[in-house]
Each structure stands twice: as structure tokens, then as C-alpha cells.
Write a structure and sequence with these properties.
Growth Hormone, Chain: A, transport, MFS, 2 domains, 17 helices, mainly alpha, cell inner membrane, about 400 residues
Length: about 400
């Protein structure tokens, strides 16, 4: 395992492209859901289930992909995951009914999960502390272009052809990333000689209280973000009566906010530890969500510009939370970094699915349920981090 060299810009770009696989697979086909439902002679609701199945399959892929990567190496795990992803995508392209789509979306997601966990693990193999956080932030800036562009790409493809061409695009993207990584990804984790079971690897992570504090910090930040993603269509287009044309641009402002916060995070890491910046991001989320909750609770007719501004600040704070929480977590596990990354991702996606479901369950046509859940998530992360890390030794951050 080579821990003396540092990841090159080209490698960081490729790892960002690998990580972008998930937002592309989730967001690119959203504009095509009505067309898919009509073509497959099913309901829009049944077609939307394919999104939930992808999230579940992605979590499963990460759970198994992390220990697999730590044992067999990053190249083997990345190649295997991308192969499964492409096979699942091919299956979706030729599906003739919704049940086949469901099946192959799960296959696609499992492959994506196995592949994507390697991105942060490779960064951890090649760097530490502040350097690791900076590289993860740089990777995140590039990766965040995916959710910004994916719906626009999907809409453009729909104007050219049908929904199946969107999955042809995903297939070509997956193959292109796989070929590039085959030639450019070094093996940063040598095959383990000892046969440590998956359960033992996860036990090492779950028994580490300080690491769990960082994991839950990211977990509930992601839950707050997924609450926004789930609730924003009904809040923007329903409550505020924003058109379907304007909505993607309002949504995109949040992604731009995260990208700017990531750039700020990279600069601040020259002066502050990742743990301090993580706390700053959590404090910003608590403050903005509290102001937003009080505003929509007290004011009878909230102003769109103020709600949008506060939501942008809340989501932008993710730029200070995710990369610093990830780098702080994997710092404890030099030989199990992919397992720790897998746990970060799978718990985060599970919490996001739960918060999104709560937004839908409690939805009353107003912004209040979405904002209330966002505020609760912003509180739970730092509270659990404080409780779990009380009296524990923090990671020794290197310059």
C-alpha cells in the first residue's frame, strides 16, 4: 500500500467521475418517469418505486463492497462494481415491463454501491488528515456538477429520443469511467493476507465511539438534505406555485451553494482542523433551519425569496460537513477505510430514505413538515457526536 504518494489531479477527477455515477443514475431519468410509466403501461407511482429500489440496492452494494475492497483491493472492487452496474443498466434498456425495471435497477444500484465506496478509500490510502479533507473537497466540487446537470441531460435526451436512451447514456458513462480507471487507477490497497470477516470489519468501525460520532454527523446531515430533496417539489411547485421550468433552476442554486462552500472549505483547511469546520457546518445548519422553522410557523404567507435563501444556506453547509466528517472517520481505519466509507454511505442513505418518507407522510401542503424534519436532523447530528465523543481521543490531524 502506497501512502507516500499523493493523488494526482487526474486521479481525483476520475474518482469524482466515479462518485458522480450515483447522482446521474438517480437524477437523469427523473424527467422521463411519466414517459416510462406510459410506455410500460403502469402508474407513475410504480415507476417512482424504481428510485427507492435504487437507493436500497445502493446501500446494499456499499455494505458488501466496503469489506470486499479492503480485502481484495481497490481495482478489483471498482472493476467488479462497474461491471455489475453496466449489466444492470443493459437490463433496464431492454426491459419490457416495470417488474424487470425494478429488478435491473437493484442490480445496477448494487454494482454502483460496490464501485463508489472505493473513491474515498483511495483518497484515504494516499493521504491523511487535512490533505485527505482537501482532496475529498476537491473531488466533491467536481462530483456536485452531476446532480446539477443530470436532470438537464435527461430532459435533453428526451427531446432527442425516448427514456431508454437515458440508460444508454448511463451505460456509456459507466463503461467510459471503467476503462479510464482500468488504465489510471493504481492499486492503493494490497490484497489482505489475513481473512477478516465482513462482520468483524464492521464491528471494528461500530465499536469506535469517536468514529461513530463523525458517522452520525454525516448521517443526519444527509437525512436533512434528503428531506429537502423529497419535499422541495411540493413546496416550490405546490405551495409557492413555481412552474416546472423554474423549479430545476431553484434546485440548482442549492448545488451551486454546496460547490462554493466546498471551495471555502478547501481554503479554510489551511488554517483549521476538519473537526472544527465540521462543527461550523453543523452550527450553520442548526441556525438556518431554526430561523426557517420559526419563519414558516409564525408568518402566514412566507416569502419565496427568504425561504429559498435559507434553504440554500442549509444545503450549502453540507460543503463543510460531508468531506470533513468522511476524512475524520476514515482517519481511524487505515486498513478498513472502504468499510468505514461503506458504513458512512449506507447509514446516510438509510437515514435519507427515512427522513424523505416522513416528509411525505406528514405532508400537509405547507413547508412546515419539510423544515421541521430538517431542523430535527440538524440537531441530532451534533448531539449524538457530542455524546459519543465525550472523553474520546480525536484523530491526530496531519498538516
Amino acid at each position: 500500500m502506497n501512502q507516500t504518494s499523493s493523488p494526482t489531479r487526474a486521479l481525483i477527477l476520475l474518482l469524482a467521475a466515479l462518485t458522480a455515477l450515483t447522482p446521474l443514475a438517480i437524477d437523469a431519468y427523473l424527467p422521463a418517469i411519466p414517459q416510462m410509466a406510459n410506455d410500460l403501461a403502469t402508474s407513475i407511482h410504480d415507476t417512482e418505486i424504481s428510485l427507492s429500489l435504487y437507493l436500497a440496492g445502493f446501500a446494499i452494494g456499499q455494505i458488501f463492497g466496503g469489506p470486499f475492497s479492503d480485502h481484495f483491493g481497490r481495482r478489483a472492487a471498482t472493476g467488479s462494481g462497474l461491471t455489475i452496474f453496466c449489466l444492470g443498466t443493459l437490463g433496464v434498456i431492454f426491459s419490457q415491463d416495470i417488474h424487470s425495471v425494478w429488478l435491473f435497477r437493484v442490480v445496477q444500484a448494487i454494482g454502483g454501491g460496490v464501485a463508489v465506496v472505493n473513491a474515498a478509500a483511495v483518497i484515504r490510502d494516499l493521504s491523511h488528515g487535512k490533505d485527505s479533507a482537501r482532496h475529498l473537497s476537491n473531488m466533491a466540487v467536481i462530483m456536485m456538477l452531476a446532480p446539477l446537470l443530470a436532470p438537464l441531460i435527461g430532459m435533453l435526451i428526451l427531446h432527442i429520443s425516448g427514456w431508454r436512451l437515458i440508460f444508454v447514456f448511463l451505460l456509456v458513462y459507466g463503461l467510459a469511467v471503467g476503462i479510464a480507471l482500468f488504465f489510471r487507477l493504481p492499486e492503493t490497497r494490497k490484497k489482505a493476507t489475513e481473512r477478516t470477516s465482513m462482520f468483524k470489519r464492521y464491528g471494528m468501525v461500530l465499536s469506535h465511539r469517536c468514529a461513530l460520532g463523525f458517522i452520525f454527523s454525516q448521517c443526519f446531515a444527509l437525512a436533512g438534505m434528503f428531506a429537502f430533496i423529497t419535499g422541495s417539489p411540493s413546496v416550490y411547485m405546490g405551495y409557492f406555485d413555481i412552474s416546472e421550468t423554474i423549479y430545476p433552476f431553484l434546485f440548482g442554486l442549492n448545488v451551486i451553494g454546496m460547490m462554493l462552500a466546498n471551495r471555502l472549505n478547501i481554503r479554510l483547511l489551511h488554517y483549521y482542523k476538519p473537526q472544527f469546520l465540521l462543527g461550523a457546518g453543523q452550527a450553520a445548519q442548526i441556525l438556518t433551519s431554526l430561523i426557517l422553522l420559526l419563519y414558516v410557523s409564525i408568518v402566514a404567507q412566507p416569502q419565496l425569496w427568504l425561504v429559498v435563501s435559507l434553504l440554500i444556506l442549509f444545503i450549502a453547509s453540507m460543503g463543510l460537513i460531508v468531506s470533513n466528517a468522511t476524512s475524520s472517520t476514515v482517519e481511524f481505519f487505515p486498513y478498513n477505510s472502504a468499510t468505514a466509507t461503506a458504513l458512512l454511505g449506507s447509514i446516510g442513505f438509510a437515514a435519507g430514505a427515512l427522513s424523505g418518507s416522513l416528509v411525505g407522510l406528514l405532508g400537509d401542503g405547507t413547508p412546515w413538515p419539510m423544515v421541521a424534519i430538517m431542523f430535527a436532523c440538524s440537531l441530532l447530528g451534533p448531539i449524538l457526536r457530542t455524546v459519543l465523543q465525550y472523553g474520546q481521543q480525536q484523530p491526530q490531524t496531519q498538516q
